Predict the structure.
Amino acid sequence: MSSRAALDVFDRRESEVRGYIRSFPTVFDRATGSTLVDADGREYLDFFAGAGVLNYGHNNPVFTGALIEYLERDGIIHGLDMATSAKKAFIEAFERLVLAPRGLDHKLQFTGPTGANAVEAALKVARQATGRSTVVAFTNAFHGLSLGSLAATGNSHYRGAAGVGLDDVARLPYDGYLGADIDTLDLLEKMLDDPGSGLDLPAAVIVEAVQGEGGINVASAAWLQRLREITAARGILLILDEIQAGVGRTGAFFGFEDAGIVPDVVTVSKSISGSGLPMSLVLLRPDVDVWKPGQHTGTFRGNNLAFVSARVALETYWADSAFTDAIAAKSELLRIELERIAADHPDEGFVVRGRGLMYGLACDSDRTLAGRISAEAFRRGLVIETSGAFDEVLKFLPALTISEEELDRGLAIVRDSLDVVLAAG
Ligand SMILES: *Cc1c(COP(=O)(O)O)cnc(C)c1O
């Protein structure tokens, strides 16, 4: 049976809401590292990494071993927010390997295991801590699809599904939205200080250091620093949504790290467990941690298997700089090749942008091009997604553990796919 025929049951029984299955129409069966294998045994190179969940690759043996061992000794699987040895070991590792080296004194809140739930918690606690309701979010932001997080998300395709008002969020232009020469924070600052602007003093500003779903838009270090200054001076909390840009994706553990800023609140999810098991965290500066016991609860806050692999990920990859050095080298390869592709196709007017192993090849002159390259690449054995408001950006999000050979091989497929798509007209 071909994989296409094997998709029948999904067409017949799975809701119309299904998404990625349409871009990558096959039945996946197993995976290791950066290779996915479908039920027919066909291999695909993975430049998608579960939308940033699989920064350490699929079924990384470092995690698999630890998880199997934990299962075999009957370690606690589900713990609500009770203390467990797996959770204790994770918190200690996070304190030692992430917080302490960066001089961060944040407390850890474990939320329900989706990114959206972490964002909900961040927005709630910011509103509660300040007693204010407005939150500033940026153009092309993606913060999740539950109502509070959706209100902060920009994309009208997602917003249109809400069916109720998405209130208390003010939208301002992200870095670069009005072109390279305009500092969009001039507008925020002016509006905050002008009682006629119509912008109420916000509880918080929520921002991604690099916008993933919104089209791989990169905030400059200077812009993030100025945003930190503007918010700090006015008692506005700064929330960094690190759900996609965090955990090494931009080349450092946090996407905001290179800017040298300290956010009041940080949301982390996607790759934090390392193994792909669901897990979410909110980091809170102690003075923002105004929660009352059990005030933001959730049944699945204690996914202890996730805590086990999350701890192993920190111990394996974040104890020294070897991992980030390797990401930097691969980032350079990726950037150079994307710039070469752009230079070789001047008519398409490609724009290359990104940091670390989070890159976009944007084509505004033909917004269907990225989608057509993605489809052709899939036929040639590469899984690569698009992003941006018009899906006009081909999104390079390989595992951070990908080999240089795999990176080259995937890039060659992208090049070939582009040639085929352009030749087809
Ligand atoms: C994926 C993502 C979310 C939402 O996470 P879910 O687990 O899908 O709810 C929020 N913010 C950013 C930046 C994301 O990339």
Remarks:
- Residues 322-344 form the longest helix (23 residues).
- The radius of gyration is 21 Å.
- The domain at 75-317 is CATH 3.40.640.10 (Aspartate Aminotransferase; domain 2).
